[in-house]
Each structure stands twice: as structure tokens, then as C-alpha cells.
Amino acid sequence: MQRFQFYNPRSVEDALNFLAEKGERSKIIAGGTDLIPGLRLEEIRPDFVLNIPEINPFRGIKEMDHSFWIGPTTTFTEMVESNLLSRSFPALVQSAASVGGPQIRNRGTIGGNIANASPAADVLPALLAHGGELELQSKRNGKRIIPLAEAILSPYKTCFRSDEILTGIILKKLELGTRSAFEKLGRRKAMARARMNLTLLLRLNHREEVSELRIVPGAVMPVAKRMDRTERMLLGKKPEPLLIEAASKTLAEEMVEVTGARWSTEYKIPVLKNIFKRMMKQLLIV
Amino acid sequence: MSKEPGKTLLKMKVNGKAVEVMVNPTWTLLRVLREELRLTGTKKGCEQGDCGVCTVIMDGRTVNACLVLALQTESKEIETIEGLGTADQLHPLQKSFIKHGAVQCGFCTPGMLLSAKALLEKNADPTLEEIKRGISGNLCRCTGFVKIIKAIQNVHR
Q1: Chain A residues with beta carbon closer than 8 angstroms to that of B25
Q2: Is the Cβ–Cβ distance between A232 and A210 less than 8 Å?
Q3: In whole numbers, what is the pLDDT of chain A averaged over residues?
Q4: Which among A158, A160, A157 is positioned nearest to A144, based on CA atoms?
């Protein structure tokens, strides 16, 4: 590891002051499960490492009037153990539960998963499907809120400025009756890097027509995004088996448009179609 | 302790005892445990968080000591395998591992025991599926896991 100085800020203000001065030469460390291997391989060579897990206002999960607030250093284990989140965002909790093994979930954080912006991040697609927003703060510009969908520019690259810290994740409350599901496919059951995952969010109206649908495949694209064309195919219609079958084809096409044809495409197309159909079926039974 | 250039004083608790040690900012908890405190029961394996042989318990939760910077453990309580029973008075899990033949080469054993301990502290009577999930961050290349799982299931029998 290349030498760096370690700084343990006492407060949010202390951390923001530090970044205002030294942000360009710094890396923020939360759980460190992604950062430390990067430091060890010298893929990243910061002069300063800013340690944020001890900053209390960055922790916890709060329910507000119309939304939930998740502190950036909330660990995956804390998300899985949260009754608030389990009740309101089951797919998000399932995605957190699919991260690594217990040791990684005990340390890794939601904010770190976002800031690291790995294409295989487990929690990002679920957060995107839920329309997550990020609260960023800097000494110079104060607070700004941006949609997660705009925050991740390319693999491992976010739009965060060097003097900014992710200070919270905001999830709007979903309308009553919204169902959600998450599934991950890895090479083995535990500890696997996602080969593919899929988050679905579905709501039907009183006529049993699709009134809302969000589809986000993860780990197959450089940056996870909603598959709008497939979503529109089903919107306002009854989700009959034939339509779902057709939608699964469109979904696979939409994915390939983003990824281009690769060696693994032949495998991924049928797998994505089948996972999609299976999850739709499960959501429609509920 | 003399002041050394570039090093910082770290205060934490290891196996119930207060510890003060001068550390380099680049050192991991694993390095401090093994090379400064000479607690070599915590093993060094993949150093990427995949194998779990460096598992220790920090403030009640298992972590990979290779993925924690030493300075991140300021004021924390660390429990290593050296804190789990003594040679004359083994921990029930250690006895059960021996009884069920859950130790072969032994390299994964310290981490496996600590993951099992953390699991049982939260859930005294885990199902087979819960045990498998609980030790899913610890690889064993000898036993095929069956005997380890039996040892955890039968710890109080």
C-alpha cells in the first residue's frame, strides 16, 4: 500500500472542512470492503483517507412523512435487520442480503456501494428501481439532491465532486399495493459477485391492469438503468402470460442494445427472460 | 512507547484487555493482530475478504480483519480466537469441533469458530439453512463443511 495519512473527523462539519481543503487528494473510507483491496493493489493512491463510520449523523434509517432516509454508513446487515425497510422496500432488503457473506455485510455500507459505483453492485439496481435520490453536501455549495439515476456516470465513476460527501439516501414512499422483488444470480450461492440480478417493482390498478412497473437488471450493463421500453409495453395492460412472454423478449433485446453482443450474451438472454417471467409470476400471485 | 515517525497511537480492546500500539496508517487490523500483538491465531489468507480465515469479532459483529484499517478500530472491542476459551477450558464450540472431527488442516478453524460464535449469540437454535448462511463467509477446503455444520448444530448436545 502506498503511504497515506488517516483522518478521523469528529463531525460532519469537520469532514466537510477537510474535503474542502484536501478533497482532490483524498479518498473517503466507510466499510472499506471495496476500498482496501483497491489501496492494497495500488489501483488508488490517495494522500489522505477520511474515515466516516464514526460520524453519528451518517448512521441509521428514519421514516419521514413521504419518504425514508437512510444514512450513508448504514451497513448491509443493518438494512437487513431493519423492520422499517423490510416492510416498505422488500426488494431493497433482499438485495442487501445478497451482498457477500456476513463479514462483508457487517462492514459494507449502502453509501459505499453507491460511491464505488461498481457495475456489479448488488444494491444499486434495487435503489434505482425505487427511484432513490442522493443528498450530497460540501462546504462550498451546501446541500444538493440528485436522482441516483444521474449520479453514476460510468463504471466506478460518479458525479460527486471531490469536496462532497454523500450524506443521505432518500427513498420516496411507494403507493399502497406496490409489490417488489429482487433476484441475484451468481456462480455460487454465497459470496458471489453478481453475474446478473433483477429488481422488479409492480402495481396493479383495481381493473388488474399494470399501473406502475419498474424493471432494472443489474450487473449486466456498465451502469444499471430502467428498461423503459419493456415497462411501457405492459403499462395500462393486463399482465397476461402471452404479453409477459413478449415483454421478456423485448427486455432481452433492450439489454443487448446497451451491452452489445458479448461472449456471454447467448447465456444471458434466456436467463434474463426466464428470471423476469418467474419473478412476474411470483409478484402476480401475491 | 516512543514516538515513531509516521505512526499513530491506536487504543482498542483485544479479548477484554486494553491495548495501545503504534501503527502505520496503511496497516490493517490483521497486520496489527498478527505482527504487533503476536496473536497469530487469526490467519492471513486471500486478503480480499473472500476466504474468511482472518475473521474476528468487532463490537459484536464478525469482520474480515484484512478489510479493516487498524486505525478504524480506535476504541473498538476486538475478539480473536485467543479469547475463545483456554487450553484447559475450551469453549463449547471448540469441544464440539473436536468431537465431530470438524478440524482437518485447521487453517479455517479460528475464523469458522468465531463466525459460529457470532451466529449462536444472535440465534441460539439456528436452522441448517441459517448455519449455512452464517458460515458462508468462511471457506473450508478440507471437510466439505458437513462436519463443521454438525459441530455447530450439536454444540449443546
Answers
A1: 3-6, 49
A2: no
A3: 94
A4: A160
User: A223 falls in which pLDDT band (50, 70, 90)?
Assistant: confident
CA-angle at B34, arms to B29 and B39, nearest 5°? 110
pTM score: 0.94
User: B68 to chain A: nearest residue by CA?
Assistant: A32
- Any idea where the domains of chain A sit in the sequence? 1-52, 179-285
Distance, CA of A167 to CA of A9 (rounded, Å): 14
pLDDT digits (tens, 9 = 90+) for A167-212: 999 999 999 999 999 998 876 666 666 678 999 999 999 999 999 9
ipTM of the complex: 0.95
Q: Which of A1, A33, A49 sits opposite B67 (nearest CB)?
A: A33
Among B25, B48, B72, whose Cβ lies nearest the Cβ of A53? B72
**CA neighbor of A136 nearest in space, from A150, A155, A122:** A150
Residue of A154, A109, A159 lying closest to A134 (CA atoms)? A159
Q: Which of B4, B54, B69 to mutate to test the interface with A (most CBs of A within 10 A)?
A: B69
Q: Quick check: A103 and B52 CB within 8 A?
A: yes
Q: How confident is the model at residue A266 (pLDDT cuts 50, 70, 90)?
A: confident
Which residue in A103, A38, A112, A107 sits closest to B26, CA to CA? A38
Residues of A in contact with B55 (CB under 8 A): 103
Q: B92-153 falls under which CATH superfamily?
A: [2Fe-2S]-binding domain (1.10.150.120)
Looking at CATH, the fold of the domain delimited by B8-83 is given as: Ubiquitin-like (UB roll) (3.10.20)
